[in-house]
Design brief:
This protein is mainly α. Helices cover 63% and strands 0% of the residues. Bound molecules: zinc ion.
Length: 219
């Protein structure tokens, strides 16, 4: 019963039974994605926070070739439409899953706990760094772009980069632990959300720094 969907999926084109492959195993016609499919299943991956980059690349290239519109240009209208929509899904899955931060955000969405688009609250762990950055930016603006102030802002940019790299590395370590335990548990989702909020906050701050530095360059 549970396997009905995977076992009895019938190709719209040749009517033969095919699994959940993106293209029919017999006639290679692109298949509509099942309603319940997520970005992991598009590439045949299990729902896990850890994704092995090499495996992802291989799956992406294979899927991309199989559904590519060039390969289905002589198909009928339905075949061509399905090829286009499957290609879009494959690209979206790859773009989302290859980046640990984007993957984490998608994970929250999948579990009905999406990260807020805008978050103006300073995460407590980052308060000191945020304060320092804002002070240096203000110093640079007030000085009209003086060299010493500029160097100070560049130094802060370096700190932000290091902090972001550290947070991303930590996040991937946590993914391993969470996958081994219970990656959909409410406490895991809460911690994932907290970590992703920190990263999002710092990335926005990093953009502000970059903009300010770029603006001064042309002043
Ligand atoms: Zn078929």
């Amino acid at each position: 019963m549970m396997r009905a969907e995977t076992r009895d999926h019938e190709c719209w084109h040749c009517s033969r039974r095919t699994g959940l492959a993106l293209v029919c195993l017999h006639c290679e016609a692109p298949q509509p994605l099942p309603a319940a499919s997520d970005l992991f299943s598009v590439l045949g991956l299990p729902r896990r926070l850890v994704v092995e980059p090499r495996d992802l690349e291989d799956r992406y290239h294979a899927a991309s070739r199989a559904v590519h519109p060039d390969r289905h240009q002589t198909a009928n209208e339905r075949g061509r439409e399905l090829s286009l929509s499957a290609s879009a899904s494959v690209n979206r899955a790859y773009r989302t899953l290859r980046d640990p931060v984007a993957r984490g955000r998608y994970w929250l969405e999948l579990h009905g706990a999406p990260l807020a688009e805008r978050n103006n609250q300073v995460p407590p762990e980052l308060a000191a760094l945020v304060f320092e950055t804002q002070e240096q930016l203000e110093g640079l603006r007030e000085s009209g772009g003086a060299a010493a102030e500029r160097r100070a802002v560049e130094a802060v940019r370096g700190e932000l980069d290091a902090r972001l790299a550290g947070l991303s590395a930590e996040l991937e370590e946590r993914y391993v632990t969470w996958d081994a335990a219970s990656p959909g548990a409410p406490e895991v989702l809460a911690e994932l959300k907290r970590r992703l909020s920190e990263i999002a906050y710092l990335s926005t701050l990093r953009d502000d720094v970059e903009e300010t530095l770029a603006g001064r360059e042309h002043a």
